[in-house]
Specification:
Number of strands: 4
Distance between the termini: 35 Å
CATH class: Alpha Beta
Strand content: 5-15%
Largest sheet: 4 strands, parallel
Order of helices and strands: EHHEEHHEHHH
Helix content: 25-40%
CATH superfamily: P-loop containing nucleotide triphosphate hydrolases
Strand order of the largest sheet: 2-1-3-4
Structural class: alpha/beta
Radius of gyration: 16 Å
């Protein structure tokens, strides 16, 4: 792997970013993580987060540590990623109804009220938010991006994993990446189009 390039995994909440971090790790890209946020019922395999990312834009020194590694960046923080580095962005996408279902269940488990906002408002917000994130990525001079469908990974993983490997110049271990797919964790599957 290119030791100067920073791999960013991003997307909307509950879109499969933690799974992608694990897949890239198995594929050969070391994750930058501090394990502060451990596994729980919503993410039994862990979140693969690095707390200092949340300090963007004030703290950017950690980017030096991220060279040659992968790091998960919340969508809302993408706009704060500075230029001056080379980035490969793996942006996770997922059926919005599934995201809403998964997000609602997670909020309920945390004791929060998911009904503060209607599903239609949430869907419209997520749709607009995703559009803004894509615009931010495409306008960033140092970012090369691949958009990856969580739904496609879960239904037809091999061609999706091959395309991810091609994005990384064919240097990933696709067999190990495939071993990460766990049908049992696809708990909010909906048979519908966005």
């Amino acid at each position: 792997m290119d030791e100067e390039t920073i791999t960013i995994v991003s997307g909307l909440p509950r879109s499969g970013t933690s799974m992608m971090m694990e897949m890239l790790e198995k594929g050969g890209i070391e994750p930058l993580t501090d394990k502060v946020r451990g596994p729980d019922e919503d993410n039994p395999k862990g979140y693969y987060e690095y707390e200092r990312v949340k300090e963007l834009p004030e703290d950017t020194e950690w980017l030096e540590k991220a060279k040659g590694k992968s790091v998960k960046v919340l969508g809302e923080l993408i706009k704060h990623i500075p230029e001056g580095y080379d980035y490969k962005v793996v942006f996770m996408e997922r059926n919005l109804e599934e995201i809403i279902e998964s997000q609602t269940k997670m909020l309920k488990r945390k004791g929060e009220d998911p009904d503060d906002i209607s599903e239609k408002e949430l869907r419209d917000t997520f749709k607009e938010y995703r559009k803004i994130l894509k615009q931010q990525i495409s306008s960033h001079l140092g970012m090369e991006v691949i958009y990856v469908s969580y739904n496609d990974i879960m239904s037809h993983p091999e061609p999706v994993i091959e395309s991810i490997s091609a994005f990384f110049d064919g240097e990933l271990n696709t067999t190990e990446m495939l071993s990460v797919i766990d049908e049992d964790l696809y708990r909010n599957r909906l048979e519908m189009e966005e």
